[in-house]
Amino acid sequence: MNKQQIATKNYLMRAYRVDQRIENKMEQIANLHELATKATVTYSDLPKSKRYGSRIEDAVVKIMDLENEINGDVLELVEIKSQIMDSIKAVQDPELQLLLELRYLNYVSWEQIAVKLNFSIDNVFKLHKKALDCVVVPEGLQ
């Protein structure tokens, strides 16, 4: 793969990376929810600890912060996918378009692409290189 193909591949993979970031943050939220629900209340005649309440509050605040970050990431993902879609639509060959859509918008594995297109894996890789040469990366995103 030449430098231009690598740059094009990196451009097309931006959506996948943002999607992975979103998935990671969602997993963090699930873990924080789990920690917050594990808190148990104990009753005692001793003075109340302010730290217990603030631990739950801290978890809730972190969850809210992560949810806000996810919302921003989702907007970024939609914009990136739109840009990638435009670049893929500009490719003239419908077969190459399909390959690029499957890989970079649907995150389908190479093996699954080979099955869907009824090609050997080697042919899929050859088509992929050809497809990368057909994609025009917008200025400023190279």
Question: Would you identify the regions where 5 or more consecutive residues have pLDDT less than 50?
Answer: none
How many β-strand stretches? Answer: 0
Largest sheet: none
Work out the radius of gyration: 23 Å
Compact description:
The chain has 142 residues and is mostly helical.
Describe the structure in your own words.
- The protein has 6 helices and no strands.
- The chain has one domain.
- It starts with a helix and ends in an 8-residue tail after the last helix.
- The mean pLDDT is 88.
- It is mostly helical and 142 residues long.
- The protein is elongated.
- Helix content is 76%, strand content 0%.
Helix and strand topology:
Blueprint: H1 3-12, H2 14-38, H3 50-89, H4 94-104, H5 110-117, H6 121-134
Helix pairs in contact: 2-3, 3-4, 4-6, 5-6
Features:
142 residues; mainly alpha; 6 helices; 76% helix; 0% strand
